[in-house]
Amino acid sequence: MSQRALEVTLGLLLLFLVPSDCFRGAGSRAAGGAIVETSNGRVQGETEKGVLVFRGIRFAAPVTGSLRFRPPVPPSRWTEIQPALDFAPACPQLVEIDPTENNNSVMGEDCLALNVWTPLADSKKRPVMVWIHGGGFIGGSARNTWYDGASLARRGDVVVVTLQYRLGAWGFLELSEIGGQGYEESGNLGLLDQMAALKWVKQNIRAFGGDPNNVTLFGQSAGAGSVGILMTLPAASGLFQKAILESGAPKEFNDKQRALEVTKAFLKIASVNNASELQGLSLNELRDAQKRLFDSSFGYSAFRPVLDGVVIKEIPMQAFAAGRAAFVPLLLGTNRDEIRLWSALYDLPIDEKPRPVLEKQLTAIVGARAHQAIETYRASDANYGDAVIHLIGDLVMRLPSIRLAESNSPHQPTYMYTFVYRSTSSYKRFDSSHSMEIPFVFGTADDLDAIVFTGRNTAKKALIGQVQEAWTNFARTGNPSRANPSWPTYNQNTRATMQLGVSCSVINDPNSAERAVWNMLPFDGITPKGAMMWQLVYSNRAP
Predict the structure, then answer these.
(1) Do the Cβ atoms of 413 and 478 come closer than 8 Å?
(2) pLDDT score, position 541
(3) In-domain check, residue 368
(4) The domain spanning residue 225 has which CATH number?
(5) Of the residues 151, 176, 221, 432, which is catalytic?
(6) Does 344 lie in the same domain as 297?
(7) Has 76 been annotated as catalytic?
(8) Which of 143, 194, 227, 416 has a Cα at 20 to 30 A from 510?
């Protein structure tokens, strides 16, 4: 969920490696439940929490052996009914101690699978909502208990799909130069996996009671960035009709030069010289090399989508600004205290950053406007630490989302939100941090796995209902509005923004003074430089 470019200790690694076919079903649970015919064979789900659920349906062949570091290919057809009862293993990653990331320690390379929740596998054409998880392109999975789609499917009468994609070196290692033919797209395999899952949805979701022509793609953090990138790729055109971006925009990427530098460093650490030798390494050897790379100067932002000229041919945010994206109805927003997640979980003293250090760091990024920016945020927040949190959050999250809304709104209906519910957790001070909206979207905010993050609050139930209604209304019609209050579209005149909290209300141009400080900056990952902005999170030292 969080951006994983964190210069901090990973913490205790919890790893249980599983056989590559573990999720295909061994009949360990009682037979029963609906049987659905897919393009690759029949799958059997079960009824749970009032809906049908199908877990671990393979949408691509195992990306092992000669298919490692290669684009996904369709799976082989199976003849026997496959129990779709268990989640696929998470794609390989380093596992962190983080309440927003759970259930990922069961992992394996044969991980390209998806999960489906549906009220009924009938002929009704329900809206389809396809979720892309976050995790900084190096972590996360559809195993996460927060992403249980039952509540959303049941409340909104929609079909919910969650998918997995390759991460880190497996999904974003640029091997075109050393691998040659067959490796031209290796720097963006994670994105190709996402498109393969969407193609599966297009081909199969009707059998699960969904409408293949009414698909809403939604994601958070790196998942939201992925959604934005897919909107700019011709190969993804027609695979979805609406989009929801939660706390993310398509601004995180490596240019070809940096991607090749990462590859050379990774190969050196792994003690291999070519793609063939890389193919021969074990999963553990690759994980170890990745950990050592993260501990180097490249840090946790080493792997991300690559501006390779093959899959991604143009800087995504620039494509939006130039009108060269596939504009669709868009719902997007950020959380009021995004950066609290990093200060809370990793004990980073972000809100204690000395004023002189902040000003020097900010000057290196935005030049002479740094002093004015700090003064503006200080005027809005009585507490200096809160001002720092909001300033950095705006740079990293809110302003890129606003730029995306500005580009999309002239073409398609666009709706903006700010999530302002403040956690009551007794564990850490989270406030309205990064990821706080997720358990409200999925209706899991009162689950024990989420309470440590959201806290206990009787008002949560009503907010869950409001958020789920808005998200599913948008998936159904392209308009999230409830009867009261109505949710007006976003434009650069009014900048209407729904504040989602214990009470919900529309505010025109919230935090307008802070927004205006950054006028004329595109926030496209190049200006200001994305990697430099993240240094505001990691370091309390002046450049």
Answers:
(1) yes
(2) 77
(3) yes
(4) 3.40.50.1820
(5) 221
(6) no
(7) no
(8) 227
DSSP 201-234: HHHHGGGGTEEEEEEEEEEETHHHHHHHHHTT-G
Report the side by side order of strands in the sheet with 35-38.
35-38, 41-44, 82-83
State whether 109 and 192 are in the same domain.
yes
Answer yes or no: 221 catalytic: yes
pLDDT of residue 5: 41
Tokens of 230: 């897919």
| Domain assignment of residue 327, yes or no | no
Rounded CA separation 115/108 (Å): 17
Helix ranges restricted to H, 478-517: 512-517
Count of Cβ atoms closer than 10 Å to residue 393 Cβ: 27
Give the domain range for residue 475: 335-538
Task: Report the DSSP pairing between strands 113-118 and 159-163.
Answer: antiparallel
Residue 441 neighbours by CB under 8 Å, 6+ apart: 152, 218, 246, 467, 468, 471
How much is the pTM? 0.93
Instruction: Count the helix, strand and coil residues of the chain and give each as a percent rounded to the nearest 5.
Output: 40, 15, 45
In this prediction, residue 119 carries a pLDDT of: 98
Cβ contacts of 472 within 8 Å, gap of 6 or more: 127, 129, 152, 155, 156, 157, 158
Same domain? For 231 and 298 the reply is yes
268/295 same-domain check? yes
CB 342 within 8 A of CB 533: no
Q: Which of 317, 346, 379 is the last residue of a domain?
A: 317
Task: Report the domain count for the chain.
Answer: 2
Which of 338, 401, 432, 437 is catalytic? The answer is 338
Annotated catalytic residue, options 185, 434, 435, 514? 434
Both 165 and 298 in one domain: the answer is: yes
Rounded Cα distance, 275 and 285, in Å: 15
Same-domain status, 383 and 277? no
- The CA angle 164-340-384, to the nearest 5 degrees, is 155
Q: Which residues of the chain have pLDDT under 50?
A: 1-31
Instruction: Write out pLDDT tens, residues 214-226.
Output: 999 999 999 999 9
Active site residue 338: yes
Do residues 229 and 193 make contact, with C-beta atoms less than 8 angstroms apart? no
Q: Are residues 100 and 134 in the same domain?
A: yes
In sign, the C-alpha dihedral spanning 105, 49, 22, 74 is negative
Domain membership of residue 426 (yes or no) is yes
In sequence order, which residues have a C-beta less than 8 Å from that of residue 164 and are 6 or more positions away? Answer: 88, 90, 91, 111, 112, 113, 114, 133, 141, 142, 193
Helix (H) or strand (E) holding 298: none
d(CA 449, CA 100): 9
Burial of 458-489, coded b for 16+ CB within 10 Å and e otherwise, reads: eebeebbebbbbbbbbbbbebebbeeeeebbb
Cα distance between the two ends of the chain: 28
Q: Is residue 156 part of a domain?
A: yes
Residue 538 has a pLDDT of 86
